[in-house]
Amino acid sequence: MKKLLTGNYAASYGAILSRAEVISAYPITPQTQIVEKLSTMVAEGKLDAEFINVESERSALAVCMGASATGARAFTATSAQGLALMHELLHWAAGARLPLVLVNVNRAMAPGWTVWCDENDSLSQRDTGWIQLYCESNQEVLDTVIQAYKIAEKTMLPVMICMDGIFLSHTQEVVDLPEQEKVDRFLSPYKPPFSLDTSSPHALGSLTPPHVYFEFRYKLQQAMDEAQAEIEKTGKEFGNTFGRDYGLLDEYLLNEAEIIIVALGTVCGTCRVAIDRLNEKGNKVGMLRIRTFRPLPKKKIIESLKDVKKVIIIDRNISYGHHGILHEEIKSAFYRKLNIPLFGFIAGLGGRDITPEDIEQMVNYTLKHEESDTDILWWGVNK
Amino acid sequence: MKFRASELPLTPLSLKDTISIRTGDWKYVEPFYEEKLSPCISACPVGTDVTSCIALLAKEEFQEAAKLWKESNPFPGVCGRVCPRFCERECLRQHLGGSITIHLLERFIGDLNVDIQNKSQKTGKKMAVIGSGPAGLSCAYHLSRKGYKVTLFEKEKLLGGLLRAIPSYRLPPQIVDKEIEGILKQGIDIEINKESGKDFSLEELKQQFDAICIATGLKERKLNIRGTELFNVWSGREFLKLNNDIQNKKITVIGGGDTAIDAARVALRKGSEVFVFYRRRREDMPANPYEVEEAIEEGVNIKYLSEPLRIEKCSSFLRLFLKKKADENSEFFIDTDGVVMAVGEEREMLNNEIKDTFLCGDILTQKGTVSHAIGSGKETASLIHKYFFGEETSITLPAVVESEDLNLDYFKEEYPPEEKKRDMSQRIKDFDEIYQGLTREEVIIKEATRCFGCGKCSGCDNCYVFCPDAAIFKQDGKYIIDYDHCKGCGICMEECPRGVISMRRTEK
Amino acid sequence: MSMTEIRIHGRGGQGAVVASQILALTAMKEGKYVQSFPEFGVERRGATVEAFVRIADKKINERCKIYHPHYVVVMDPALVNIVDVTEGIRENGWVLINTSKTPKDFSFHTNVATIDAFSIATEKKLGSHGHPIVNTTILGALVKIAPVVNIKTLVEAIRESISSNTEKNVEAALAAYDKVKI
């Protein structure tokens, strides 16, 4: 069934169709509508789940972790400062190997006080052990929530789904709502490998001395490595069932491209428009969208980029004192494998619009330069 | 120890379930539930289970509360009015809003007039109790409830002994009547106007009864001074029994005990001007301090450190000579219409060598309060029972709760309701009761719920909730400690508001 | 034309965002790809607001505001003096203004249409007395000048979206469709 949905409601429907059993969240713009919808559905008896009100994002995640530890399918959503407040427990959830799904609506970090989009909030959490998937459309948000549970429960890693605030969260578009029956066939109920159970109590997350802690961390990394295949497989299976394929990465006109734009989030859509226009004019431009940021599919990235002349990275974020975070990731993936000039643009912080014209000009800049003489190519900032 | 990553679970998760880990091994001390004596119970001469009764009152289970009270004390109405409140002096509430006004709750219980059934099995033993003061009545009551056939001998026409000497503004006679009636309902025969040594001898009684209990109390002490034989010189008890007209007279009382204060206030109510002379200081007076206070308030003149020397008869009045204590040259006198000598009591010489004869009350203890007499009657009844049947009547008493045993964080500062009291100007004109007791609402809502319930488990769940090892569970309304998993941390003891949990060394 | 872009100017409380959503729903019903989004900002009554709609025959990839609209809808005539309503408008683009004036009264260098949505909404008793809600009315007029969707589909979309006074809203849209001045 086709429905006109905002990104927020697409996330809500994703959780509903995945039959989330415990939902806890704290309102924060631009995420609020996600849980508003879910709490309404629970209150109206249309969703058989526990909706637990809490006093902070940290508690919301704690509730979901507790629920997940008992074997329930748990869902939460947040944004920016809310995600930052969860930080400690983000580590905990991953270390405890709880297959949670969290939707983060990307919003710039305050101050200055803002409700508009950039991706610094979730990218700052890249080292917490969560799988991070970035979406480009509302349809992808909904589809990814469903896939995320499958990936999480298979890898026993929590999944963070990121969507750009306003650009998706508050934009209505046509979304194909899968049938519940089909979703149920795709996503079977969660069977935890271990769970908190008063009839057979176990200590969970107890003191882990040096002689074993290291091994647990090794296993976490192993799980991340293995998650790549799982994400890919789940995306394909999803395509087989619902007709929409998803992969680790999303390639656009890569073949024969001489310049490739690497980006994540909604700017990729705008890139497509710009690339079409550029290629119409005879350029050879393509795009590699990083759908999966953690685990970072380094091999696939190398494979996709190995034959291009220049790579443009558009970062709607910044690692202060360094440069764009995605730029840094690509650079590290390239180390001693590829020697291709990288053009790291930082654009669109705090919700500043990035138009197809902006991207055309970035490409034109790149065409005119052999390489970038600076780590950061500020785009659109009034210096 | 080395583990390969592949051998480890996904996340630090105990391989065995935590039940199999006997963390109980770690402890060197362990908690245990031990209901303790509340200080009020410990202080009560009768040993009434005060805290349980108050808990019942708080639950509005009035009948049950009254029955439980009367299990030990058949005189709640009397004691609620005249007991010196030993319990309240010890109450641990006193620093958090003031002691529970236990006497008012007791009075409330008494005034419910609840009868309790005597369901005892007959022992076949016949008992004679001589003297129907509070001790004799209590002893007869408890013996009867243990299955003895009791006959009570009283030299006066009315049962009650010294209870009858207490002025009615403190203790209305109908309260005494009601409670004696309740005692007699246990199945006690009475012989009134029968005085030992005059109407019968102990030897005669021995023939008819299996044992005898003597509860004839103390006799009044006489002052060894000149003039005590004079007309209008009375003993305290004599004066209190009198129905004389002393309107506009001047009455002088010698003494500082309850009887002296009673005599003074009675005289005042009869329209006299009253002087009390006491040989020591005010703080040394054995009388209830609040009654001394009230007497002064009502207009009784009390002089301290004054010792009587002699009484002389003048034309139409008496002249009482006194001196200041420890000053031989300080003789002074007061002219008066009557002198009351209420200088205490003493034991009569008694032949208690007779077999199967027991004593109870003041004659035994010389404690002098109604409550001690009742307690003594109860104790002697137990002793008699043990004498005949050897049954264990006393067990080791549990420890008494101390202030530091409680966790006062769980209690708010709350104040007792104020008991209604008749106005001074009104109360000195008649003999009606001064204090009015508490209303039902005051009892339930304010006072009974203020009680900590020291030493008694109220089922608050604190131990259950706070145990960090979930080693306390509930079964059939009781808490059970799982010693296999209790680490002996003592948090349960710490968090028990009422001091019910104690710690002991673990014996391995 | 592969994609039509529409910008709606209104004031907080006038229903500009709802208008953009109803228009998007209409296009969806006709099997088109759509995008509708508000200019996200201070959402208070009376503040100037903008809402955007993209309608296309193929997937819409743009993830930015509309800077070159084909159509501009002005829900409050006073906005004409406050906001540059024709900013970035395409060649041969249209400005539809809710006003009792006629197109001749405006000197924009583009096509102008006018509709007295205020009177129609008042007549149909939409919104509260003295504060008529003109969003459905003005959509009727827009569909006339922007034949990117059909008036019949618009009526369906209104019926689906508006739960109170539904038929009055439909009547208002139809009236505006007929009365729009070009």
Named CATH architecture of the largest domain in chain A: 3-Layer(aba) Sandwich
CATH fold field value of the largest domain in chain B: FAD/NAD(P)-binding domain
Secondary-structure-based class of chain A equals alpha/beta
Proportion of residues in helical segments of chain B = 25-40%
CATH class descriptor of the largest domain in chain A? Alpha Beta
Main sheet: strand order of chain A: 3-2-4-5-7-6-12
Radius of gyration of chain B: 29 Å
What is the number of domains of chain B?
A: 4
Instruction: Profile the largest sheet of chain B.
Output: 5 strands, parallel
Number of strands of chain B: 19
CATH superfamily of the largest domain in chain B: FAD/NAD(P)-binding domain
- Tally of individual helices of chain A: 13
Q: Largest interface, by Cβ-Cβ below 8 angstroms: which chains and how many residues each?
A: A-C, 26 and 18 residues
What is the level 1 CATH name of the largest domain in chain B?
A: Alpha Beta
Unreliable segments of 5+ consecutive residues of chain B: none
Poorly predicted ranges of chain A (pLDDT <50, ≥5 residues)? none
Characterize the overall form of chain A: globular
Termini gap of chain A? 48 Å
Q: Helix-strand pattern of chain A, N to C?
A: EHEHEHEHHEHEHEEHHEEHEEHEHEHE
Structural write-up:
The complex is a heterotrimer of chains A (383), B (508) and C (182). Chain A is of the alpha/beta class and 383 residues long. Helix content of chain A is 41%, strand content 19%. In chain A, α1 packs across α2, α1 (7-17) runs parallel beside α7 (138-155) and α7 packs across α9. The mean pLDDT of chain A is 96. By secondary structure, chain B is of the alpha/beta class. Chain B has four domains: 14-35 and 457-505, Alpha-Beta Plaits; 39-115 and 406-450, Orthogonal Bundle (Fumarate Reductase Iron-sulfur Protein, Chain B, domain 2); 126-218 and 347-389, 3-Layer(bba) Sandwich (FAD/NAD(P)-binding domain), CATH 3.50.50; 233-345, FAD/NAD(P)-binding domain (3-Layer(bba) Sandwich). In chain B, the strands form six sheets. Chain B has a five-stranded parallel sheet, with helices on both faces. In chain B, α8 links the parallel β3 (149-153) and β4 (188-191). Chain B is elongated and about 120 Å long. The relative contact order of chain B is 0.17. The model of chain B has no long low-confidence stretch (mean pLDDT 92). Chain C has 182 residues and is of the alpha/beta class. Chain C has a single domain (3-179), classed as 3-Layer(aba) Sandwich (Pyruvate-ferredoxin Oxidoreductase, domain 3). A six-stranded mixed sheet of chain C has the order 2-3-1-4-5-6, covered by helices on one side. Chain C has a two-stranded antiparallel sheet with strand order 7-8. In chain C, α1 crosses α4 and α3 (135-145) packs parallel to α5 (166-179). The longest helix of chain C is centred in the first third of the chain and has 14 residues, at 16-29. Chain C is globular and about 40 Å long. Chain C starts with a strand and ends with a helix. The model of chain C has no long low-confidence stretch (mean pLDDT 92). At the A-C interface, β8 and α10 of A face α1 and β2 of C.
